[in-house]
Structure formats: structure tokens, C-alpha cells
Amino acid sequence: MSYADTQNAPGDASEAVQNPDRGLPAVPEGTPHFLIVGACKAGTTTLYDDLALHPDSFMPADKEPDILHRGQDPDEVLTMWRRHFRGAPQGALRGEGSTYYTMTPDRADVSGLARRVLGPEARIIYIMRHPLRRIESHLGHDHIAGRVAAEDFDRAALEETRYVAWSDYARQMAPWIEAFGRENVLPVIFERFVSERHSTARAVASFIGLDPDRLPARSGVSNARDSMRVPKGKMLSRLLNSTTYRQRLRGLVPDGMRQVLRQAVSRRAGAPVEVALEEETLAELRLRLSHVPGALRALGITPGDW
């Protein structure tokens, strides 16, 4: 991809509304017209729930089915997506929001598989947050889930590669741009989404082919840390967080039943703890991520004021 290929694409969601309406993307029947692929802990659930209010959208309660990792080949992925979106009204825009799709190297890159199944027109949305603030939120989330102790925050941030890798936004976005073209990938700046909530959601709606004037305003925040639920017991937690469950067993349970079971086998998490990393840790994280703004610009993406 050359730099010239980026010139007609919006630098971020604030510019998307300026693009002419291209209508719904042409994708196979029963598959998503758009994917919110990340980043985790950057407001993806809130955006998903905002878009789900649009009368012309169909977005199942299971936001993150992770079908591109669960399916073994394009045919199986196609079958699983059609099952996931069964019941969608004719002509409705279908979307999913699996942030697992931008978690390399911990999860496989699935952008090429998505392109083979969906074709070239599917729209891809990626939310970027201040990289260090995303890491802090990620650590807080993992603490509530029992994956990291509060006293290990600094060690985990530096030694467990997922925290830095998932904040390397250029690394995560590049394969999706290669697969779908820059014009079909919309970056969203989290901080602008927070401060200009409805106008940003309207811009995203316009980008994916919905009439932004029919999108209701919403003020609630989805998946906040103080509303998280965690499994009852360590053995159950290990099962529900395992690759075997996520990629093979979870899909066998219907969406509605999964929501009922989730309430039955989980409890409300305790109060979130403040994540206050040492200055030495923050300095090292800044160094490791210092290339990100320049790498984003090389992709034709306007970074946030980080």
C-alpha cells in the first residue's frame, strides 16, 4: 500500500462524516457489514451499544463472538457468522465487536481470513486511546478478573508483552489496512469519543452506511470496571478464560442461554483499584511506544494528542 492510497480515507472519525455516503458494504448474506476490532479497554462496548440503538442495525447481545478465531476455515466462519446473525431483519446492517481480532501476537492475525470471507467492502472500526491510559485500564481489568495482583502491576506492564503490544496501534491496524484498504478502515480517537460522544457515533454510523440522523443519543457507559462480573471460583474462571472454551465450547450455547448462564455462574466484582504505575515504569513504557504516532501517520492515520 502506498501513501497515495490513504488520501481519500478519513484520518479519524471526526473526518468520516465528510465522506459521501457509500451505502451498505456488499458482504455475503448473513455476515457482518462491519467489525469493531479494537482496541480492548478503549470504549468498544460503549460504541457497539450506541450503534445498536440505530433502527436499521442488527447487533446481537454477544458483542465478542470471536468467530474468526473459532472457525477453522472460511466455510466454517461463514456458517458461524450466519448462525450468529440469524433473525436479522432483511436489509439491516449487521455488526460485531470482537477485540480479540487485534491482540497479536497473543492471538493470531485474522485480517486475511476476514477478507476471504467478507470480501473487500466490509468496514473496519478501531478505537485508539492514549497508549498508557489503555495499559492502566487493561491492568485494572485484569486485576478484577484475577489475572494480575495489584502489587504486580509494574512488573506485569513491563514483562507481560500483551500490555505494550495491544497499545501498539499501528502494529495492530496495519494487517487490517492491508486486507481491506485504508478507505474501509476507520480510526476513532477514544478521547474525542468521550468528549464528543454523539457526534463521533454519528460519524461512525455514516462511515458504515447508516443514516446518522436516525441514531439516538445515549449517555450510558458500557462495561465499566465497577460493573464487571467475574466467575465464581478459580476453576470456573480458568475454564471460561481458556482457549478451548472461547474458541470451541462457547459457540455451542445459544446467545440467550449464554446470558442467563453468565449471570448464574458469575458475581459482581469488587470495587476497582487505582492503577498507579511507578514513574520508572511509565518512562519505559513511553520509550517502548514512542514510535506509535509516527507509525500511525505513515499509515495515513491521525494519532490522538498523546
Describe this structure in words.
The protein has 306 residues and is α/β, with parallel strands linked by helices. The protein has a single domain, classed as P-loop containing nucleotide triphosphate hydrolases (Rossmann fold), CATH 3.40.50.300. It contains 16 helices and 7 strands. The strands form 2 sheets. A 5-stranded parallel beta sheet has the order 2-3-1-4-5, with helices on both faces. Strands 6-7 form a two-stranded antiparallel sheet. Helix 4 crosses helix 5 (111-118). The protein starts with 12 loop residues before the first helix and ends in an 8-residue tail after the last helix. Residues 1-8 have low confidence and may be disordered.
Number of strands: 7
Count of helical stretches: 16
**CATH superfamily descriptor:** P-loop containing nucleotide triphosphate hydrolases
Portion of residues in beta strands equals 5-15%
List the secondary-structure elements in sequence, H or E.
HEHEHHEHEHHHHEHHEHHHEHH
Largest sheet: 5 strands, parallel
- CATH architecture assignment name: 3-Layer(aba) Sandwich
